[in-house]
Please model this.
Amino acid sequence: MSLKSYIALFLFVLLGFAGVWRLQKCIDAQQSAVANEDDQVMLRSSKLVKGLSLEYAPLVADIYWTRVVQYFGNKQAGKQLDLRLLWPLLDVTSVLDPHLMPVYDFGSTFLSDAPPRGAGRPDLAVELIERGLRANPDEWRLYYDLGFVYYFDMKDYAKASEALYEGSKNPKALIWMKTMAAKIAAEGNSPETSNFLWQDVYNTTKDALVKQNALRHLQLLRAEEDLKQIDALADEYQKRFGRRPVRMRELVQSGLLRGEPVDGLGYPYILSEDGKAELNLKTPLRDKWIKAPASK
Amino acid sequence: MTRVGTVALNTFREAVRDRVLYNLVFFALVMMAAAILVGQISVNIEQIVIVTLGLSAISIIGLLISLFIGVGLVSKEIDKRTLYALLAKPLRRWEFILGKFAGLSLTLAVNTVAMSAGLFLALFYVKHSIERADTAVLVAVYFILLKLALVVALAMLFSCFTTPLLAILFTAGLYIAGLFVHEMRNMQPNTIDPALGGFLRGISYVLPNFENFDVMGAAAHGRVISGMLIAQNTVYAALYCAIVLAVAMAIFSQRNLK
Model:
């Protein structure tokens, strides 16, 4: 082949791939119209998938696990609330490889957490963790996950205490689990306990998504406490001046606050028209905020 | 072009002589068994089972043929020394490659059309009718054919410079990688190292995207597949095959056959 032929071939390949790239963009747009989210998990029977995987079930589990993370990541990026495929994906993954521990850690957090933070299915999270415990009875961490779901999402403090106590029997378990089991049994829900549990998740998890989620919860817990205090100051203001404040500045000018308070991300809190403290409309925490009683 | 056509026709004849089309008997048996059994063991999803099973069988059988025969198209001619007799005739090397590709593509087309007929017969047996929505199945079959042409081109490319075993491994590897292109491209920054994510996104546009041809879900549920997508996938497969075959021809032209 002559030099000219080589150059021609090189140019053809280069232009060809440029065409492929351009074409792919158009195909992606067309495909999104044809694709249906349900096609992502056509086989939902975990037993069938395991049978079809032959002796490569652990490898297929790894692939499914990657899909779980990407599915959740895509949903988070698109701010989509519908996580209905999370359970089938986790179900298949955990049956294919029941010893894949991140599945339980991740599943207990995002299956149980209430929308918009998770799928809002604590019952399925409990089922997943109990499956994990049957396969890995020595994993004290699973009892911790179970206690977590009972405490935050099911508000069943007796069962939460029981799970933490059961896990604390393992010699490798965290030293505070027994104490926490007793505290929850005695007090039920408390901001200190919630804060402590989320702080521990933040400190110990290796999963970036779980860590990020724990940080958000810690920031939300702090914000909820701040909002309660601001409401108490607004009540005090009402007693003094006969009306509720509608701007944070009024609380500052009255001397009840030293400055305008901000949330964990630096956004100032606001007061609603009826004088109730709220998160700033621009803070990213607002997406995860569930107005109502302080919880997970 | 007559010379390319002659090579293509002879490749097709050779495949028929080698009893490649006997796989149709296997396919017919699978579809007959499925059509009879599916009504007994599934409720309300008989059509979906027949379509997904049929399309999967067409795809798997086609892939096996295109991979194993595609890899042997060049190497077998060299091993049997029949290539020397061919190249002594007024036949250029690039014409030989193009003819072989066209011949195996023709074999696959005949095979796929026959299997599709079997699939529609099974579908008719289960549904007692063929509806307009079933054209999506035809489109899915066409997309499988495009995919197979791409696999043949890749198998031929690798067989031009390496052993048949390695060529099979490379082609199968690229095929599997090509099924995960979408995942590579859509890795979320919060789940992966940004540099690795960028690298994966970059190569995802160079790898053959076999996911483009996967419309099995849409076909099984009778969803409409747009004419634009059909046209774009056709151009995509043609362009990609042209690139791969151009490189294969260049390599084969330079190969020392002594």
